[in-house]
Design brief:
Elements: H1 4-11, H2 18-21, H3 25-29, E1 43-51, E2 61-74, E3 81-88, E4 93-100, E5 105-112, E6 116-125, E7 128-137, E8 140-152, E9 155-163, E10 169-179
Antiparallel strand pairs: 1-2, 1-10, 2-3, 3-4, 4-5, 5-6, 6-7, 7-8, 8-9, 9-10
Length: 185
Amino acid sequence: MPMLLPMLLLASSPYVPIYEAMPSRAILKRPVPELKHLGWMVGAWRCHVHSFAVGRAPARDFGESSYTAKFIMPNALNGQRTWLQLADTTSRDLTLLTFDPMARRWVLTGIEWPVSYGVSTGEMSGHRLVLTGGATVFGRNYHLRQTITKVGENSFTILNEERRPDGRWIRDDEYDFVRSASPKS
């Protein structure tokens, strides 16, 4: 058993400073074709939000709000906008979504009023993108799973779940999006 710790220490990846790890400009200039999988989301959306009954908390209907989705942050080397921004029009909810071509995974970061934030990573399979990661909501840390499902060209859902201490996933809330205007670039 005493040999286990030295073996674990030797098995870890060596430290590489960020600017040594940085890929060449040629690699950074490459377009990210996976982002085309999100192009259908660009435009204006109506969103209905509801929560599920969990523990002593009853299910709630939060009503409808409006969102816009657009690509932002152009790559300085090729001009491709690399992040999809999904924001409600009251500035209470902001989601940023991209594909990391070097790590080969989808990345989502979200912030929500008053003070909720998190980062998740995941994979896309067909019309479904499943991301998991840590989030802080009202000062408490959670492990969340977010499933974005394309229902059609003009609708999608976002289902949020949290992992319980026993490992079970429970549904927290769901956002149902319906396109409210034609897509814009």
